[in-house]
Amino acid sequence: MWRFIGIRLLQAIPVILAVITVTFFLVRVAPGGPFSAEKAVLPEVKAALEAQYRLDLPLFQQYTAYLGDLAQGEFGPSFKYPGRSVNELIGAGLPVTAELGFYALLVAVIIGGLAGVIAALKPNTRQDYIPMTVAMIGICMPSFLLGPLLVLIFGIYLDWLPVSGWGDIPGDKILPAITLGSAYAAYIARLSRAGMLEVMSQDYIRTARAKGLPEWQVVVKHGLRGGLIPVVTFLGPAFAGLLAGSFVVETIFQIPGLGRFYVQAAFNRDYTMILGTTVFLSTLIVLFNLLSDILAAWMNPRLRAQFGEQ
Amino acid sequence: MTTEIITDIADAEQGSSLWHDAWLRLRKNRLALAGGIILVGFSLIALLTPWIAPYAYDAQNLELGASPPSAQHWLGTDIFGRDLLTQIMYGGRVSLAVGFVATSVALLIGVTWGAIAGYVGGKVDAVMMRLVDILYALPFMIFIVLLMVVFGRNILLLFLAIGAVEWLTMARIMRGQVQQLRQQEFVEAAISLGLPPRTIIRRHLIPNALGPIIVYTTLTIPSVMLLEAFLSFLGLGIQPPQTSWGLLISYGAETMEEFPWLLIFPGLALTITLFSLNFLGDGLRDALDVRRSKD
Protein backbone atom coordinates (compact mmCIF):
# COMPACT_ATOMS: atom_id res chain seq x y z
CA MET A 1 0.00 0.00 0.00
CA TRP A 2 2.73 2.48 0.92
CA ARG A 3 4.55 1.62 -2.27
CA PHE A 4 1.37 2.33 -4.22
CA ILE A 5 0.96 5.69 -2.50
CA GLY A 6 4.61 6.51 -3.11
CA ILE A 7 4.40 5.71 -6.82
CA ARG A 8 1.25 7.76 -7.20
CA LEU A 9 2.78 10.73 -5.39
CA LEU A 10 5.80 10.59 -7.69
CA GLN A 11 3.47 10.50 -10.70
CA ALA A 12 1.62 13.59 -9.49
CA ILE A 13 4.75 15.75 -9.41
CA PRO A 14 5.36 15.95 -13.19
CA VAL A 15 1.66 16.64 -13.72
CA ILE A 16 1.69 19.59 -11.33
CA LEU A 17 4.91 20.89 -12.86
CA ALA A 18 3.38 20.59 -16.32
CA VAL A 19 0.35 22.56 -15.18
CA ILE A 20 2.49 25.35 -13.77
CA THR A 21 4.72 25.50 -16.85
CA VAL A 22 1.94 25.43 -19.42
CA THR A 23 -0.14 28.00 -17.56
CA PHE A 24 2.80 30.31 -17.02
CA PHE A 25 3.89 30.38 -20.66
CA LEU A 26 0.34 30.50 -22.01
CA VAL A 27 -0.33 33.64 -20.03
CA ARG A 28 2.98 35.15 -21.12
CA VAL A 29 2.58 34.50 -24.84
CA ALA A 30 -1.02 35.70 -25.02
CA PRO A 31 -1.46 37.74 -28.20
CA GLY A 32 -1.67 41.42 -27.39
CA GLY A 33 0.08 40.46 -24.19
CA PRO A 34 -1.37 40.72 -20.75
CA PHE A 35 0.96 43.58 -19.98
CA SER A 36 0.60 45.73 -23.05
CA ALA A 37 -0.58 49.01 -21.63
CA GLU A 38 -4.03 50.20 -22.54
CA LYS A 39 -3.08 53.82 -21.93
CA ALA A 40 0.27 55.45 -22.57
CA VAL A 41 2.19 55.66 -19.31
CA LEU A 42 5.33 57.52 -18.36
CA PRO A 43 8.46 55.50 -19.02
CA GLU A 44 9.44 55.65 -15.33
CA VAL A 45 6.04 54.32 -14.26
CA LYS A 46 6.25 51.61 -16.84
CA ALA A 47 9.71 50.62 -15.66
CA ALA A 48 8.55 50.55 -12.03
CA LEU A 49 5.55 48.41 -12.97
CA GLU A 50 7.69 46.06 -14.98
CA ALA A 51 10.10 45.72 -12.09
CA GLN A 52 7.23 45.04 -9.70
CA TYR A 53 5.89 42.24 -11.88
CA ARG A 54 9.42 41.14 -12.81
CA LEU A 55 8.85 41.84 -16.49
CA ASP A 56 12.31 43.35 -16.84
CA LEU A 57 13.85 39.92 -16.38
CA PRO A 58 14.31 37.42 -19.24
CA LEU A 59 11.33 35.09 -19.63
CA PHE A 60 13.09 32.05 -18.23
CA GLN A 61 14.17 33.91 -15.11
CA GLN A 62 10.61 35.12 -14.63
CA TYR A 63 9.58 31.49 -14.72
CA THR A 64 12.14 30.28 -12.20
CA ALA A 65 11.36 33.22 -9.94
CA TYR A 66 7.69 32.30 -10.07
CA LEU A 67 8.53 28.71 -9.22
CA GLY A 68 10.47 30.04 -6.23
CA ASP A 69 7.42 32.05 -5.13
CA LEU A 70 5.21 29.00 -5.45
CA ALA A 71 7.59 26.93 -3.36
CA GLN A 72 7.04 29.48 -0.59
CA GLY A 73 3.28 29.31 -1.05
CA GLU A 74 3.06 32.69 -2.83
CA PHE A 75 0.66 32.49 -5.79
CA GLY A 76 1.32 35.99 -7.01
CA PRO A 77 -0.27 39.44 -7.02
CA SER A 78 -3.36 40.64 -8.80
CA PHE A 79 -2.53 42.68 -11.87
CA LYS A 80 -5.76 44.64 -12.04
CA TYR A 81 -6.11 45.42 -8.36
CA PRO A 82 -2.77 46.46 -6.93
CA GLY A 83 -2.51 45.45 -3.31
CA ARG A 84 -4.68 42.37 -3.64
CA SER A 85 -3.06 38.99 -4.02
CA VAL A 86 -4.16 35.57 -5.14
CA ASN A 87 -3.43 34.26 -1.66
CA GLU A 88 -5.90 36.70 -0.11
CA LEU A 89 -8.63 35.71 -2.52
CA ILE A 90 -7.96 32.03 -1.95
CA GLY A 91 -8.14 32.64 1.78
CA ALA A 92 -11.50 34.38 1.39
CA GLY A 93 -13.01 32.14 -1.27
CA LEU A 94 -11.75 28.67 -0.49
CA PRO A 95 -13.72 28.09 2.74
CA VAL A 96 -16.94 29.12 0.98
CA THR A 97 -16.31 26.94 -2.07
CA ALA A 98 -15.19 24.04 0.09
CA GLU A 99 -18.39 24.22 2.14
CA LEU A 100 -20.54 24.43 -0.98
CA GLY A 101 -18.65 21.53 -2.53
CA PHE A 102 -19.01 19.46 0.61
CA TYR A 103 -22.79 19.90 0.76
CA ALA A 104 -23.05 19.20 -2.97
CA LEU A 105 -21.02 16.02 -2.60
CA LEU A 106 -23.19 15.00 0.32
CA VAL A 107 -26.30 15.45 -1.83
CA ALA A 108 -24.64 13.54 -4.65
CA VAL A 109 -23.39 10.58 -2.63
CA ILE A 110 -26.45 10.09 -0.44
CA ILE A 111 -29.13 10.53 -3.08
CA GLY A 112 -27.12 9.01 -5.93
CA GLY A 113 -25.79 6.07 -3.94
CA LEU A 114 -29.17 5.24 -2.49
CA ALA A 115 -30.91 5.44 -5.84
CA GLY A 116 -28.28 3.28 -7.52
CA VAL A 117 -28.31 0.58 -4.85
CA ILE A 118 -32.10 0.47 -4.74
CA ALA A 119 -32.25 0.19 -8.53
CA ALA A 120 -29.65 -2.59 -8.58
CA LEU A 121 -31.51 -4.71 -6.04
CA LYS A 122 -34.38 -5.29 -8.46
CA PRO A 123 -32.97 -4.79 -11.95
CA ASN A 124 -35.33 -4.27 -14.87
CA THR A 125 -38.35 -3.58 -12.71
CA ARG A 126 -40.10 -0.33 -11.97
CA GLN A 127 -37.85 0.05 -8.93
CA ASP A 128 -34.95 0.18 -11.42
CA TYR A 129 -36.44 2.21 -14.27
CA ILE A 130 -37.82 5.13 -12.29
CA PRO A 131 -34.64 6.16 -10.44
CA MET A 132 -32.55 5.56 -13.55
CA THR A 133 -34.76 7.72 -15.75
CA VAL A 134 -34.60 10.48 -13.15
CA ALA A 135 -30.82 10.03 -13.14
CA MET A 136 -30.73 10.43 -16.92
CA ILE A 137 -32.67 13.67 -16.59
CA GLY A 138 -30.18 14.80 -13.94
CA ILE A 139 -27.26 14.12 -16.30
CA CYS A 140 -28.88 15.92 -19.20
CA MET A 141 -29.98 18.94 -17.18
CA PRO A 142 -26.92 21.17 -16.86
CA SER A 143 -26.43 23.13 -13.65
CA PHE A 144 -26.73 26.46 -15.43
CA LEU A 145 -30.26 25.45 -16.44
CA LEU A 146 -31.28 23.59 -13.29
CA GLY A 147 -30.10 26.46 -11.04
CA PRO A 148 -32.25 29.18 -12.61
CA LEU A 149 -35.21 26.76 -12.85
CA LEU A 150 -34.96 25.90 -9.14
CA VAL A 151 -34.73 29.59 -8.31
CA LEU A 152 -37.77 30.27 -10.46
CA ILE A 153 -39.84 27.52 -8.85
CA PHE A 154 -38.76 27.45 -5.20
CA GLY A 155 -37.45 30.99 -4.87
CA ILE A 156 -39.91 33.05 -6.87
CA TYR A 157 -43.17 31.19 -7.55
CA LEU A 158 -43.39 29.21 -4.29
CA ASP A 159 -41.25 31.68 -2.32
CA TRP A 160 -39.93 28.92 -0.04
CA LEU A 161 -36.19 29.52 -0.26
CA PRO A 162 -33.86 32.49 -0.74
CA VAL A 163 -32.76 33.06 -4.33
CA SER A 164 -29.18 34.14 -3.65
CA GLY A 165 -26.52 34.73 -1.04
CA TRP A 166 -24.49 32.46 1.18
CA GLY A 167 -24.96 32.27 4.93
CA ASP A 168 -26.99 35.49 5.12
CA ILE A 169 -30.49 34.06 5.39
CA PRO A 170 -31.28 30.61 6.78
CA GLY A 171 -31.81 28.14 3.96
CA ASP A 172 -29.86 30.01 1.34
CA LYS A 173 -27.39 27.13 1.07
CA ILE A 174 -29.98 24.57 0.02
CA LEU A 175 -30.58 25.53 -3.62
CA PRO A 176 -26.89 25.99 -4.50
CA ALA A 177 -25.99 22.62 -2.96
CA ILE A 178 -28.76 20.82 -4.86
CA THR A 179 -27.91 22.60 -8.11
CA LEU A 180 -24.26 21.68 -7.87
CA GLY A 181 -24.80 18.16 -6.58
CA SER A 182 -27.61 16.87 -8.79
CA ALA A 183 -25.57 16.00 -11.89
CA TYR A 184 -23.14 14.04 -9.71
CA ALA A 185 -25.99 12.35 -7.88
CA ALA A 186 -27.11 11.16 -11.30
CA TYR A 187 -23.68 9.84 -12.30
CA ILE A 188 -23.20 8.19 -8.92
CA ALA A 189 -26.60 6.53 -9.24
CA ARG A 190 -25.56 4.98 -12.56
CA LEU A 191 -22.13 3.95 -11.31
CA SER A 192 -23.35 2.43 -8.08
CA ARG A 193 -26.11 0.56 -9.93
CA ALA A 194 -23.61 -0.95 -12.35
CA GLY A 195 -21.15 -1.70 -9.56
CA MET A 196 -23.75 -3.34 -7.33
CA LEU A 197 -25.15 -5.40 -10.21
CA GLU A 198 -21.71 -6.84 -10.86
CA VAL A 199 -20.91 -7.51 -7.22
CA MET A 200 -24.24 -9.05 -6.30
CA SER A 201 -23.69 -11.83 -8.85
CA GLN A 202 -20.33 -12.83 -7.32
CA ASP A 203 -19.73 -16.10 -5.51
CA TYR A 204 -18.92 -14.51 -2.17
CA ILE A 205 -22.35 -12.92 -2.11
CA ARG A 206 -23.87 -16.35 -2.70
CA THR A 207 -21.73 -17.65 0.18
CA ALA A 208 -22.96 -14.89 2.44
CA ARG A 209 -26.56 -15.72 1.56
CA ALA A 210 -25.90 -19.43 1.99
CA LYS A 211 -24.64 -18.98 5.51
CA GLY A 212 -28.02 -17.46 6.31
CA LEU A 213 -27.31 -13.75 6.61
CA PRO A 214 -30.39 -11.56 6.26
CA GLU A 215 -30.51 -9.87 2.87
CA TRP A 216 -29.89 -6.35 4.19
CA GLN A 217 -26.68 -7.52 5.85
CA VAL A 218 -25.56 -9.18 2.64
CA VAL A 219 -26.09 -5.90 0.81
CA VAL A 220 -24.63 -3.58 3.41
CA LYS A 221 -21.73 -5.67 4.70
CA HIS A 222 -20.63 -7.54 1.59
CA GLY A 223 -22.18 -5.82 -1.39
CA LEU A 224 -21.52 -2.14 -0.76
CA ARG A 225 -17.81 -2.43 -0.26
CA GLY A 226 -17.15 -3.85 -3.69
CA GLY A 227 -20.07 -2.20 -5.41
CA LEU A 228 -19.08 1.31 -4.43
CA ILE A 229 -15.47 1.13 -5.68
CA PRO A 230 -16.42 2.73 -9.02
CA VAL A 231 -18.10 5.53 -7.06
CA VAL A 232 -14.95 6.19 -5.04
CA THR A 233 -12.84 6.23 -8.20
CA PHE A 234 -15.32 8.69 -9.67
CA LEU A 235 -15.00 11.08 -6.71
CA GLY A 236 -11.63 12.40 -7.95
CA PRO A 237 -12.87 13.52 -11.36
CA ALA A 238 -16.13 14.58 -9.72
CA PHE A 239 -14.16 16.96 -7.53
CA ALA A 240 -12.70 18.61 -10.64
CA GLY A 241 -16.21 18.87 -12.05
CA LEU A 242 -17.55 20.31 -8.83
CA LEU A 243 -14.92 23.04 -8.91
CA ALA A 244 -15.80 23.92 -12.50
CA GLY A 245 -19.49 23.69 -11.58
CA SER A 246 -18.87 26.12 -8.77
CA PHE A 247 -17.98 28.71 -11.45
CA VAL A 248 -21.56 28.57 -12.63
CA VAL A 249 -23.37 27.98 -9.36
CA GLU A 250 -21.50 30.73 -7.52
CA THR A 251 -22.27 33.10 -10.38
CA ILE A 252 -25.97 32.24 -10.39
CA PHE A 253 -26.42 32.47 -6.62
CA GLN A 254 -23.92 35.29 -6.12
CA ILE A 255 -21.77 33.32 -3.71
CA PRO A 256 -18.40 34.87 -2.85
CA GLY A 257 -16.34 31.74 -3.51
CA LEU A 258 -13.28 30.80 -5.55
CA GLY A 259 -15.31 29.94 -8.64
CA ARG A 260 -16.83 33.39 -8.84
CA PHE A 261 -13.42 35.01 -8.32
CA TYR A 262 -12.01 32.91 -11.13
CA VAL A 263 -14.74 33.87 -13.55
CA GLN A 264 -14.37 37.53 -12.60
CA ALA A 265 -10.62 37.35 -13.10
CA ALA A 266 -11.24 35.77 -16.50
CA PHE A 267 -13.60 38.61 -17.40
CA ASN A 268 -11.26 41.33 -16.17
CA ARG A 269 -8.39 39.66 -18.02
CA ASP A 270 -6.47 39.81 -14.76
CA TYR A 271 -3.70 37.56 -16.03
CA THR A 272 -1.58 37.24 -12.90
CA MET A 273 -4.70 36.38 -10.94
CA ILE A 274 -5.73 33.75 -13.51
CA LEU A 275 -2.24 32.29 -13.43
CA GLY A 276 -2.19 32.01 -9.64
CA THR A 277 -5.72 30.66 -9.36
CA THR A 278 -5.25 28.14 -12.17
CA VAL A 279 -2.12 26.78 -10.55
CA PHE A 280 -3.84 26.55 -7.19
CA LEU A 281 -7.04 24.91 -8.46
CA SER A 282 -5.15 22.50 -10.70
CA THR A 283 -2.89 21.35 -7.89
CA LEU A 284 -5.93 20.82 -5.74
CA ILE A 285 -7.58 18.71 -8.44
CA VAL A 286 -4.48 16.61 -9.03
CA LEU A 287 -4.17 15.95 -5.31
CA PHE A 288 -7.83 14.98 -5.08
CA ASN A 289 -7.47 12.54 -7.97
CA LEU A 290 -4.56 11.03 -6.08
CA LEU A 291 -6.59 10.73 -2.91
CA SER A 292 -9.53 9.03 -4.62
CA ASP A 293 -7.16 6.59 -6.37
CA ILE A 294 -5.56 5.67 -3.07
CA LEU A 295 -8.94 5.26 -1.41
CA ALA A 296 -10.16 3.04 -4.24
CA ALA A 297 -7.01 0.93 -4.07
CA TRP A 298 -7.44 0.53 -0.34
CA MET A 299 -11.00 -0.69 -0.89
CA ASN A 300 -9.99 -3.13 -3.61
CA PRO A 301 -8.17 -6.16 -2.21
CA ARG A 302 -7.06 -7.31 -5.66
CA LEU A 303 -5.21 -4.06 -6.28
CA ARG A 304 -3.71 -4.19 -2.80
CA ALA A 305 -2.43 -7.68 -3.44
CA GLN A 306 -0.78 -6.49 -6.63
CA PHE A 307 1.44 -4.25 -4.56
CA GLY A 308 2.50 -7.05 -2.26
CA GLU A 309 0.36 -6.70 0.79
CA GLN A 310 -1.85 -9.14 2.55
CA MET B 1 -27.24 -30.88 -35.25
CA THR B 2 -24.97 -30.76 -38.28
CA THR B 3 -27.54 -28.93 -40.36
CA GLU B 4 -27.90 -26.35 -37.65
CA ILE B 5 -24.20 -25.67 -37.65
CA ILE B 6 -24.19 -25.46 -41.40
CA THR B 7 -27.00 -22.92 -41.47
CA ASP B 8 -25.21 -20.99 -38.73
CA ILE B 9 -22.13 -20.81 -40.88
CA ALA B 10 -24.20 -19.86 -43.88
CA ASP B 11 -25.79 -17.07 -41.87
CA ALA B 12 -22.43 -15.83 -40.73
CA GLU B 13 -21.15 -15.87 -44.28
CA GLN B 14 -23.85 -13.54 -45.45
CA GLY B 15 -21.62 -10.79 -44.06
CA SER B 16 -22.54 -7.57 -42.29
CA SER B 17 -24.64 -9.74 -39.99
CA LEU B 18 -23.19 -7.92 -36.98
CA TRP B 19 -24.61 -4.65 -38.24
CA HIS B 20 -27.85 -6.29 -39.17
CA ASP B 21 -28.21 -7.83 -35.69
CA ALA B 22 -27.32 -4.55 -34.08
CA TRP B 23 -29.97 -2.79 -36.12
CA LEU B 24 -32.58 -5.37 -35.08
CA ARG B 25 -31.66 -4.91 -31.43
CA LEU B 26 -31.62 -1.14 -31.71
CA ARG B 27 -35.05 -1.14 -33.36
CA LYS B 28 -36.51 -2.81 -30.28
CA ASN B 29 -35.15 -0.09 -28.00
CA ARG B 30 -37.86 2.52 -28.39
CA LEU B 31 -36.11 5.24 -26.37
CA ALA B 32 -32.92 4.95 -28.41
CA LEU B 33 -34.90 4.95 -31.64
CA ALA B 34 -36.89 8.00 -30.58
CA GLY B 35 -33.61 9.69 -29.67
CA GLY B 36 -32.22 8.93 -33.11
CA ILE B 37 -35.30 10.27 -34.88
CA ILE B 38 -35.32 13.47 -32.82
CA LEU B 39 -31.63 14.00 -33.58
CA VAL B 40 -32.11 13.54 -37.31
CA GLY B 41 -35.05 15.96 -37.12
CA PHE B 42 -33.10 18.60 -35.18
CA SER B 43 -30.10 18.24 -37.50
CA LEU B 44 -32.30 18.70 -40.58
CA ILE B 45 -33.92 21.77 -39.03
CA ALA B 46 -30.47 23.15 -38.21
CA LEU B 47 -29.26 22.59 -41.77
CA LEU B 48 -32.33 24.21 -43.31
CA THR B 49 -32.71 27.05 -40.79
CA PRO B 50 -31.85 29.94 -43.14
CA TRP B 51 -34.71 28.85 -45.43
CA ILE B 52 -37.34 27.70 -42.95
CA ALA B 53 -36.90 30.06 -39.99
CA PRO B 54 -40.14 32.02 -39.50
CA TYR B 55 -38.32 35.36 -39.17
CA ALA B 56 -34.97 36.83 -40.21
CA TYR B 57 -32.19 36.26 -37.68
CA ASP B 58 -31.71 39.97 -36.97
CA ALA B 59 -35.37 41.03 -37.30
CA GLN B 60 -36.29 43.14 -34.28
CA ASN B 61 -39.59 44.63 -33.17
CA LEU B 62 -38.78 47.04 -30.37
CA GLU B 63 -42.41 48.14 -30.05
CA LEU B 64 -43.47 44.58 -29.32
CA GLY B 65 -40.66 43.85 -26.86
CA ALA B 66 -40.82 40.62 -24.88
CA SER B 67 -44.09 38.83 -25.50
CA PRO B 68 -45.30 35.38 -24.44
CA PRO B 69 -45.97 32.63 -27.01
CA SER B 70 -48.65 33.63 -29.52
CA ALA B 71 -49.92 32.73 -32.97
CA GLN B 72 -47.38 35.04 -34.65
CA HIS B 73 -44.48 34.03 -32.41
CA TRP B 74 -44.95 30.41 -31.38
CA LEU B 75 -42.35 30.55 -28.61
CA GLY B 76 -42.70 34.27 -27.84
CA THR B 77 -40.18 37.05 -28.33
CA ASP B 78 -37.24 38.45 -26.37
CA ILE B 79 -36.85 41.97 -25.00
CA PHE B 80 -35.88 43.26 -28.45
CA GLY B 81 -38.98 41.69 -29.96
CA ARG B 82 -36.90 39.04 -31.75
CA ASP B 83 -38.71 35.78 -32.47
CA LEU B 84 -37.50 33.16 -29.96
CA LEU B 85 -38.14 30.19 -32.27
CA THR B 86 -35.87 31.78 -34.87
CA GLN B 87 -33.22 32.44 -32.22
CA ILE B 88 -33.37 28.86 -30.99
CA MET B 89 -33.09 27.51 -34.54
CA TYR B 90 -30.00 29.59 -35.28
CA GLY B 91 -28.58 28.84 -31.83
CA GLY B 92 -29.10 25.15 -32.47
CA ARG B 93 -27.01 25.40 -35.64
CA VAL B 94 -24.08 26.63 -33.59
CA SER B 95 -24.58 24.23 -30.67
CA LEU B 96 -24.94 21.18 -32.91
CA ALA B 97 -22.04 22.29 -35.10
CA VAL B 98 -19.79 22.59 -32.05
CA GLY B 99 -20.94 19.17 -30.91
CA PHE B 100 -20.24 17.45 -34.22
CA VAL B 101 -17.08 19.29 -35.28
CA ALA B 102 -15.34 19.13 -31.90
CA THR B 103 -16.22 15.45 -31.60
CA SER B 104 -14.80 14.82 -35.08
CA VAL B 105 -11.56 16.49 -34.03
CA ALA B 106 -11.46 14.27 -30.94
CA LEU B 107 -12.29 11.22 -33.04
CA LEU B 108 -9.53 11.89 -35.56
CA ILE B 109 -6.80 12.49 -32.98
CA GLY B 110 -7.92 9.79 -30.57
CA VAL B 111 -8.38 6.99 -33.11
CA THR B 112 -5.08 7.70 -34.86
CA TRP B 113 -3.18 7.98 -31.58
CA GLY B 114 -4.71 4.87 -30.06
CA ALA B 115 -4.33 2.81 -33.23
CA ILE B 116 -0.65 3.64 -33.60
CA ALA B 117 0.09 3.02 -29.92
CA GLY B 118 -1.77 -0.28 -29.92
CA TYR B 119 -0.30 -1.46 -33.23
CA VAL B 120 3.33 -0.55 -32.70
CA GLY B 121 3.35 -1.56 -29.04
CA GLY B 122 6.48 -1.74 -26.92
CA LYS B 123 8.27 1.43 -25.91
CA VAL B 124 6.39 3.65 -28.35
CA ASP B 125 3.13 2.46 -26.83
CA ALA B 126 4.39 3.02 -23.29
CA VAL B 127 5.48 6.59 -24.05
CA MET B 128 2.30 7.47 -25.97
CA MET B 129 -0.06 6.13 -23.33
CA ARG B 130 1.96 7.63 -20.49
CA LEU B 131 1.40 10.98 -22.15
CA VAL B 132 -2.33 10.27 -22.27
CA ASP B 133 -2.24 9.42 -18.56
CA ILE B 134 -0.55 12.70 -17.73
CA LEU B 135 -2.97 14.70 -19.86
CA TYR B 136 -5.83 12.85 -18.19
CA ALA B 137 -4.76 14.19 -14.83
CA LEU B 138 -4.81 17.78 -16.06
CA PRO B 139 -7.85 19.80 -15.03
CA PHE B 140 -9.08 20.59 -18.51
CA MET B 141 -12.18 22.55 -17.65
CA ILE B 142 -9.95 25.17 -16.09
CA PHE B 143 -7.58 25.03 -19.03
CA ILE B 144 -10.31 25.66 -21.54
CA VAL B 145 -11.43 28.71 -19.58
CA LEU B 146 -7.80 29.84 -19.57
CA LEU B 147 -7.45 29.26 -23.33
CA MET B 148 -10.60 31.24 -24.04
CA VAL B 149 -9.30 34.12 -21.94
CA VAL B 150 -5.80 34.14 -23.38
CA PHE B 151 -6.63 33.71 -27.05
CA GLY B 152 -9.92 35.53 -27.19
CA ARG B 153 -13.33 34.01 -27.55
CA ASN B 154 -12.97 32.50 -30.95
CA ILE B 155 -15.33 29.77 -32.18
CA LEU B 156 -12.62 27.90 -34.11
CA LEU B 157 -10.45 27.80 -31.03
CA LEU B 158 -13.41 26.52 -29.07
CA PHE B 159 -13.72 23.59 -31.50
CA LEU B 160 -10.03 22.84 -31.19
CA ALA B 161 -9.85 23.25 -27.43
CA ILE B 162 -12.80 20.98 -26.75
CA GLY B 163 -11.65 18.45 -29.33
CA ALA B 164 -8.20 18.41 -27.79
CA VAL B 165 -9.70 17.51 -24.43
CA GLU B 166 -12.04 14.78 -25.53
CA TRP B 167 -9.64 12.66 -27.60
CA LEU B 168 -8.02 11.02 -24.58
CA THR B 169 -10.68 8.44 -23.79
CA MET B 170 -11.06 7.75 -27.51
CA ALA B 171 -7.33 6.96 -27.70
CA ARG B 172 -7.56 4.56 -24.76
CA ILE B 173 -10.54 2.70 -26.20
CA MET B 174 -8.95 2.44 -29.64
CA ARG B 175 -5.66 1.17 -28.22
CA GLY B 176 -7.43 -1.55 -26.23
CA GLN B 177 -9.32 -2.66 -29.33
CA VAL B 178 -6.25 -2.71 -31.54
CA GLN B 179 -4.24 -4.69 -29.00
CA GLN B 180 -6.94 -7.36 -28.99
CA LEU B 181 -7.31 -7.42 -32.77
CA ARG B 182 -3.56 -7.65 -33.35
CA GLN B 183 -3.49 -11.13 -31.85
CA GLN B 184 -6.02 -12.41 -34.36
CA GLU B 185 -5.18 -14.56 -37.34
CA PHE B 186 -6.51 -12.28 -40.06
CA VAL B 187 -4.24 -9.49 -38.89
CA GLU B 188 -1.27 -11.83 -38.69
CA ALA B 189 -2.14 -12.98 -42.18
CA ALA B 190 -2.20 -9.40 -43.38
CA ILE B 191 1.19 -8.79 -41.78
CA SER B 192 2.71 -11.89 -43.34
CA LEU B 193 1.35 -10.86 -46.72
CA GLY B 194 3.60 -7.86 -46.34
CA LEU B 195 0.97 -5.16 -46.20
CA PRO B 196 2.33 -1.86 -44.90
CA PRO B 197 1.20 -0.91 -41.34
CA ARG B 198 -0.78 2.05 -42.67
CA THR B 199 -2.93 -0.23 -44.78
CA ILE B 200 -3.35 -2.76 -41.98
CA ILE B 201 -4.49 -0.07 -39.56
CA ARG B 202 -6.83 1.51 -42.09
CA ARG B 203 -8.26 -1.59 -43.74
CA HIS B 204 -8.30 -4.13 -40.94
CA LEU B 205 -8.00 -2.57 -37.52
CA ILE B 206 -10.16 0.54 -37.62
CA PRO B 207 -13.16 -1.10 -39.34
CA ASN B 208 -13.16 -3.89 -36.77
CA ALA B 209 -12.98 -1.50 -33.84
CA LEU B 210 -15.83 0.59 -35.22
CA GLY B 211 -18.48 -0.53 -32.71
CA PRO B 212 -16.98 0.92 -29.56
CA ILE B 213 -15.88 4.01 -31.47
CA ILE B 214 -19.40 4.72 -32.70
CA VAL B 215 -20.81 4.24 -29.21
CA TYR B 216 -18.27 6.47 -27.59
CA THR B 217 -18.67 9.11 -30.29
CA THR B 218 -22.40 9.27 -29.64
CA LEU B 219 -21.69 9.75 -25.94
CA THR B 220 -18.97 12.35 -26.56
CA ILE B 221 -21.20 14.71 -28.54
CA PRO B 222 -23.47 15.54 -25.56
CA SER B 223 -20.54 16.20 -23.24
CA VAL B 224 -19.02 18.49 -25.85
CA MET B 225 -22.31 20.36 -26.29
CA LEU B 226 -22.56 20.74 -22.53
CA LEU B 227 -19.07 22.18 -22.40
CA GLU B 228 -19.90 24.73 -25.09
CA ALA B 229 -23.13 25.72 -23.34
CA PHE B 230 -21.28 25.97 -20.03
CA LEU B 231 -18.69 28.34 -21.51
CA SER B 232 -21.30 30.37 -23.37
CA PHE B 233 -23.34 30.66 -20.21
CA LEU B 234 -20.34 32.17 -18.42
CA GLY B 235 -19.83 34.53 -21.37
CA LEU B 236 -16.60 32.81 -22.39
CA GLY B 237 -17.91 30.80 -25.34
CA ILE B 238 -19.99 31.90 -28.32
CA GLN B 239 -20.18 35.69 -28.58
CA PRO B 240 -22.96 37.89 -29.99
CA PRO B 241 -24.02 38.52 -32.72
CA GLN B 242 -23.74 34.73 -33.00
CA THR B 243 -25.88 32.77 -30.62
CA SER B 244 -26.08 29.29 -29.14
CA TRP B 245 -28.36 27.46 -26.76
CA GLY B 246 -26.01 28.14 -23.86
CA LEU B 247 -26.03 31.85 -24.60
CA LEU B 248 -29.84 31.92 -24.96
CA ILE B 249 -30.15 30.14 -21.59
CA SER B 250 -27.85 32.70 -20.02
CA TYR B 251 -29.98 35.58 -21.40
CA GLY B 252 -33.12 33.76 -20.30
CA ALA B 253 -31.80 33.31 -16.77
CA GLU B 254 -31.27 37.06 -16.47
CA THR B 255 -34.89 37.91 -17.18
CA MET B 256 -36.65 34.74 -16.06
CA GLU B 257 -38.71 36.46 -13.38
CA GLU B 258 -40.65 38.52 -15.91
CA PHE B 259 -40.21 36.39 -19.03
CA PRO B 260 -39.80 32.73 -18.00
CA TRP B 261 -40.34 31.43 -21.56
CA LEU B 262 -36.97 32.91 -22.55
CA LEU B 263 -35.31 30.44 -20.16
CA ILE B 264 -37.60 27.46 -20.56
CA PHE B 265 -37.65 26.99 -24.35
CA PRO B 266 -33.90 27.18 -25.02
CA GLY B 267 -33.40 24.96 -21.96
CA LEU B 268 -35.87 22.47 -23.37
CA ALA B 269 -34.10 22.44 -26.74
CA LEU B 270 -30.74 21.67 -25.12
CA THR B 271 -32.11 19.10 -22.68
CA ILE B 272 -34.07 17.20 -25.34
CA THR B 273 -31.00 17.03 -27.58
CA LEU B 274 -28.74 15.81 -24.77
CA PHE B 275 -31.39 13.30 -23.71
CA SER B 276 -31.69 11.94 -27.25
CA LEU B 277 -27.94 11.61 -27.68
CA ASN B 278 -27.51 9.82 -24.37
CA PHE B 279 -30.36 7.40 -25.02
CA LEU B 280 -29.13 6.71 -28.54
CA GLY B 281 -25.62 6.14 -27.18
CA ASP B 282 -26.85 3.75 -24.50
CA GLY B 283 -29.01 1.94 -27.05
CA LEU B 284 -26.12 1.60 -29.47
CA ARG B 285 -23.91 0.28 -26.69
CA ASP B 286 -26.41 -2.46 -25.94
CA ALA B 287 -27.10 -3.13 -29.61
CA LEU B 288 -23.45 -3.39 -30.59
CA ASP B 289 -22.77 -5.30 -27.39
CA VAL B 290 -19.89 -3.08 -26.34
CA ARG B 291 -18.62 -3.83 -22.88
CA ARG B 292 -19.46 -1.06 -20.49
CA SER B 293 -16.45 1.21 -20.22
CA LYS B 294 -15.72 2.89 -16.95
CA ASP B 295 -17.58 6.16 -17.29
Describe this structure in words.
- The complex is a heterodimer of chains A (310) and B (295).
- By secondary structure, chain A is mainly α.
- Chain A has one domain: MetI-like (MetI-like fold, Orthogonal Bundle).
- Chain A is 76% helix and 0% strand.
- Chain A contains 13 helices and no strands.
- In chain A, helix 1 packs antiparallel against helix 12, helix 4 packs antiparallel against helix 5 and helix 6 packs across helix 10.
- Chain A is flat and about 85 Å long.
- By secondary structure, chain B is mainly α.
- Chain B has one domain: MetI-like (MetI-like fold, Orthogonal Bundle), CATH 1.10.3720.
- Helices cover 75% and strands 0% of the residues of chain B.
- Chain B has twelve helices and no strands.
- In chain B, helix 3 packs across helix 4, helix 4 packs antiparallel against helix 5 and helix 4 packs across helix 10.
- The longest helix of chain B has 37 residues.
- Chain B is elongated and about 75 Å long.
- The two termini of chain B are 42 Å apart.
- In chain B, 43% of the residues are buried.
- Chains A and B meet through helix 1, helix 5, helix 6, helix 7 and helix 10 of A and helix 5, helix 6, helix 10, helix 11 and helix 12 of B.
Jot down its keywords:
heterodimer, A: 310 residues, mainly alpha, MetI-like fold, 13 helices, B: 295 residues, 75% helix, 0% strand
